[in-house]
Amino acid sequence: MDMKTNQLDILLPDELDAFGQELDQLRQDTLAKLGEEDINHIRNIMRIHKRCEIAGRTLIHFSLTPVTWVAGIGLLSTAKILENMEIGHNIMHGQYDWSNDPELQSQSYEWDTVCDSESWRNTHNYEHHTYTNILGKDRDYGYAVLRLSEEDEWRPKHLFQFLNYGLLSVFFEWGVGLHELEVDRIKRKEITLKDKLPFIKRFSKKAGKQVAKDYVLFPLLAGPLAPKVLIANAIANLNRNLWTSTIIFCGHFTEDAQTFKPEQCENESRGQWYYRQLLGSSNFEGSRWLHIMSGHLSYQVEHHMFPDIPAHRYPEMSSKVIKICEKYGIPYNTGSFGHQYLTVLKRIARCSLPPKDTLNKFKFSRIFKTA
To answer: Are 202 and 110 in contact (CB under 8 A)?
Structure first.
């Protein structure tokens, strides 16, 4: 049995209610502060993103040396990461809907990735944030590719899941973009491909625009230098994919991030919901710019608790969440970036191997056949 499962019964019901009330109060206190400071933050990040993109594409197009070409790739990669993490992800969570600024509305924002925003709001904002780490309900848990809990049945294919993890990271925007296709459910014949035609049309349209922009339009603008532009755009997208995958895995799949069974989460109170978000999340520590480049998902605990609060508020909220956790004797999962990522790799490795009883049965059958 997974050691990180079945730990939702540490607090008594009255304690959970009090725990939830304190976090609700923290949420209300933070909402009351929202205003010009928050708009200035996101607008400043958007300006930095735009400058990095313009400078990066200019250096890529007109570079005369490998050094300026690589510098251009670095700037374009930075722009894509900022747009994906601190801008797009947070705006689409509704963190700035209160501003009534047309550019900052969650229902109309479209980000620079092959995943269309409607699909993201469905699979991530609703499914993942409602059923966080509930096995069989949170389809973000392992992305239907990886076995990350010993509660899940082991199969021989899991021996190769480090390879799958590498491929998922390299093509992360495509994995996220196609997540709503629900290939696992199609294989089980719970749904048909025909049921997914509306999504397929949306995805094809969005992905087609992204491919045309990065791999047709901008290369063509470079004329005979098109190959170097195409390669640079591909590397920038790869950098963004690898970074995004690493950040998300560090927030969700460390050794101390817990999973839950559906029956444990039935009829949850507000306090129980907060408690599950806390136990199923991981933070990591670092500089201010590490937090910005991660979209403040370095504060995944706070993001799961308060997904529609502007993410740059999470650092100040974190210190208060820690005090509340200490008051109730609840563990708060945080550590250095490197340490948390190492535990992710350990978890993938551990779950790649069969349980001892399966391994023993396999050994016994081999001995029996030999005899």
So the answer is: no
| Separation CA 312–CA 297 (nearest Å) | 10
Q: pLDDT per position in the chain (371 positions), as tens?
A: 343 444 556 778 899 999 999 999 999 999 999 999 999 999 999 999 999 999 999 999 999 899 999 999 999 999 999 999 999 999 999 999 999 999 999 999 999 999 999 999 999 999 999 999 998 899 889 888 899 998 889 999 999 999 999 999 999 999 999 999 999 889 889 999 999 999 999 999 999 999 999 999 999 999 999 999 999 999 999 999 999 999 999 999 999 999 998 988 888 999 999 999 999 999 999 999 999 999 999 999 999 999 999 999 999 999 999 999 999 999 999 999 999 999 999 999 999 999 877 655 555 444 444 44
CB 147 within 8 A of CB 161: yes
What's the start-to-end Cα distance of the chain, in Å? 32
Q: Are 147 and 2 in contact (CB under 8 A)?
A: no
* pTM for this model (two decimals): 0.92
Distance between CA atoms of residues 243 and 169, nearest Å: 8
